[in-house]
Amino acid sequence: MEYYLAPSILSADFKHLGDDILAVKECGAKILHFDVMDGWFVPSISFGMPVLASIRPLTDMFYDAHLMVQDPGRYIDDFAKAGADGITVHAEACGHLDRVLDQIHDKGLKTGVALNPATPLSVLDYVYDKADMILLMTVNPGFGGQKLIPATLDKIRQLRLRLDERGLSTWIEVDGGIHDETIDLVLDAGANVIVAGSAVFGADIRGNYRKLTAHFTNSKGEER
Ligand code: DX5
Ligand code: ZN
Fold it and tell me: Domain of 15?
């Protein structure tokens, strides 16, 4: 299995956002997680297309736009134009999830389906073939720096079983409350794309990045 740490720039220092992004790129990050909040689907408001467009030329990392936005189908064209490589939408926010996933694929981008902690896995039953990645929220979305909700660990295990049963290699991304003490829990449960905001951005970005990715290998340096 391939493991990725996807730094969430929600916790970056926006005074020098470009430098923070280049720091994680230098560390080897392949995926940058871009948290969009609309003040409606989630209580808070973050940033949107103009910010994505301005950081697009900085790196060739995979820009993963996590839309915590009601009716995200309205914005697929805009985020594609701004330079997203993948767009993750919440099942709870879509009246027509299947159609929105088609919209994303029609733009040539990767799709992600996100589920809040209390949303059952069964909403995925008829879209497995259209989801390139499934994002299981490990906190209720809306803010960085929250505590991981333990019940979500079993949900990760259940999703891994369902994917295995179907012979699918769909990525499982997890998001919220992941740091040095909780990362093994989500990795052991079967996640392979690990979003981390507050545990990466801070005084020592490079040190934080190294510390977290060290969990991807065992003491002999072999991948788990
Ligand atoms: C939560 C966002 C997360 C968040 C993660 O609403 O989707 O990506 O920034 O932050 P930490 O890692 O600080 O929990
Ligand atoms: Zn996110």
Answer: 4-216
